[in-house]
Each structure stands twice: as structure tokens, then as C-alpha cells.
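Case study.
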Amino acid sequence: MAHHHPPMDLLIEYSAGALPVAQSACVAAHLSYCQHCRHSVDKLEDLGGAHLERLDPQPVGESVLERVMARLDYPEPLRYAPNEVSDTQLPGLLDRLINGNYADLVWKRVTQSLSISHLKTGDPNHEFALYRIAEGGRIPEHTHGGSEMTLVLRGGFADESGEYHPGDFLIREGWDKHTPVALEGEECICLAVLDAPLRFTRLRHRWLNPLLRLRAG
Amino acid sequence: MQQKIRLFALYQGTATECILGVWDDGLTFMANKKDAANTVSATGKGKWNIPTGRRTDEWSESLVLIGESQDRGAFTRFFRHFAPLIKAFALSGSSLSATHADELVQEVMLKVWQKAGGFNPEKAAASTWVYTIARNCRTDMFRRLQKFDTPLASDDFELESEEEESFVVLHTRRGAERVRELLGDLPPDQAQILAKVYMEGKSHSEAAAELDLPLGTVKSRVRLAIQKLQGLMEA
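After joint prediction, the assembly is written out as follows.
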């Protein structure tokens, strides 16, 4: 069970369909771990239903009804079938984006204990990437120019403010520095959604910053 | 099966009134029971005695009929009620043309037909269920119109539904009724922003830009409004 959740603001925007696709996917992935937030979203969606009932109805021509009635017998569109052979044990949405095993992804090695794999969501403003940290490994101290959402998928990590396990969701804004360290015993895999690149702050790591250029899309 | 549907609709229509009576006007549950011609026992763990003969939720009932027996008559009635609301939703604050709005109505209503079998009247009000479909279709339509290349469709974000415990369901339903009542009582500045967020699908920062307000003000108005409603939603 997750212990760290998206703030209410984000759940509101999620339930209203107002989040960019990469952030929305990250929140949705958290929901698949977290019954508590699912209930909150159900209730927030009810606000949508309540608003819908109160709108001023706009006239719809009879031809629209006729066109719909004529299409009722068309076969339903095909749906994506879950990937049964992958080792990731992830919610369907991520399973679909990863489309295989973690090992099959292209991992770009940034430091000895950190590799990054970028996934395509089509979001023009957000990078959507998996961070893989070796057990006990450390991500060098860094800041963000914008917001960073993190969802733990495997293993866990700790930083200055706590310890995080699968399903835990974090959002950081702006320039607070932190130094996540993967827990012992298992490598840690996290989903990270960024709208500005990570920046290493220590002199000995700064030369790596060009490697962290934002790769949205 | 027919029996079960009817019983449920009555349960839905009246359970809320009984409980609200207890909460708000000090009316007791017994007083409500006395009004009623007869009582039925709701299924589930809570042993509620529910009076019959009050309101029924026509639209939930229609959806169940559409899902179970592909009832075209029920679907036509459902269309006549919801299509004009979906069109209003499509046109609210967005750049969609009337043609696109009609196209959205078609897409949403087709999904209603295809997905009605998955509608669970214990989990959501019919209008809320329609809202989520309309919201998803509109998002996908915006992305299509902007030639936005994504491997994800909004439907991919849906989670498999799971069994809910009956007491949670009852609480949600009671909250849903109250939210609808109290939405009209929100101060105009809060109501305006909440409508912008939910009907226009605007993020807090987009709403702030359009209303020429600081982001913090928008966030706090939304939060205040939700807090007011949340007590009810969490009840």
C-alpha cells in the first residue's frame, strides 16, 4: 500500500482531464497501486457529473441521433491486449509503454549506479523516463528547474525527507536539492516525469549535466 | 434480473432521502418509513430497511437496460437527455466548432452504447459515468486535432473496476446527492473556477491565465470549494 500520494490539486486536475498526458499517466499509474486515491478520484469525478447535469442543454440535430443509431451494430474497435510475457508486473498503462521486459529497454548509463530509459508518451513538454538505481546506489545531489513527479515501481529509495516503496508518489517543485539513495537488497526502478532537466549540483558531477538534457515527446 | 434492477433503483432513490432526513432536518428514519407504503430490505451487509415508492434514478436504470439487453428505446431516451448536455460540455470554453461538437456527441454516445455493460450503478451516478467518457473523448479529440502523436488513448488510463464494499458505496451515493445540492450554493467566484476546471478541462494555471488571477488564488479557491464539498464527499 502506498504511503505517499499526489496532492489534492493534482488529483483535481487529473479528474478534470486537465493534466498533460505524461503527468496524467504517472498519476494513473499511482492510482493502480492506491485504493485511497482511487476513491478520491471517484468522488472528484462526481463533481464533473454534477456540473454536466447543470449545463445549459444545446440543441442536437436529429441527424446526429440517426448517425449514431446507424453505427450501433458496427463492431467495437479492437483493444490492446495485455502483455503476458513481461517481467515488469506493472499496471497496464506502463506495461503498454514499456512493451516488454525492463532488460529489453534502451538504458543510458549516467553514473555507475544510475541508468535512464526514456519512454515515448508524445507529450511535447514532459520527459517520461525510468530511472534505474543499483541497490544502495546514490543519485548525485541535484535540483530541478521545474517539477518532477516520481513513482516507485520496484525496490525503494530514501532521501532527506523519507523512505519510498512501490506505489509511492512524490512531486518536487523548483530548486530544493535532494540526494536519493536506493535501499539495500534490490535495485530500484522509478518512473520520473519532468518538465525541466535534472541538474547535478556538486562540482564533480556537473560535467554530466548535458547528458540530462530534457527529452520530451 | 428485472426484479433486481427495479429494487436497486428504488434503493438508490430513497436510501439517500432517509439518511439526509436524519442528518439535516432531524427527521428520523422511522418517520420516513412511516410515509412509505411498504418496505424492502436492501441486499448487502448493512440491514437497512428501505421504503419504496419514491424517486427512481431513471438514467442509471436506462444504462443497465442498455447494457443488459441492448435496449434501443432506452438508448434513444438516454440520447435525447444527455446528447444536448454533452454538446454543451463540448462547447464550453473550448475551441471546438459546432461540427466537432456534434462529432464528439456521436463518439460519446457510441461509447455509451458499447460500454453500458460495464456501468455499475452502485459505484457512480449515470451523469458521472457519462462525464468520464465525454472527458476522455474530448481529450482524445483535442490531441487528434493538434496532430499530437501519442501511443496512449484516454481509455488506456482506465483501471479495472473492483468490488466495492457496500458501506463505501452507500456513503459515496449519499455524498453524490449532497454534492449536487450544494454545488448551487457555492460562492460565485469558487463556482466559476470549479466549472472552468471540470467543464472546460482547464488546469489551475490555465484558469489563472484566463481569469487574470494569481495561480495561488485559483488554487485556494478550488481547494476551498472542494473542502466545502469534501466533508460531504468523505461522509
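Observations recorded in class. Residues 92-212 of chain A form a domain with the Jelly Rolls fold (CATH 2.60.120.10). The longest helix of chain A spans residues 35-54. We will return to this complex in the next lecture.
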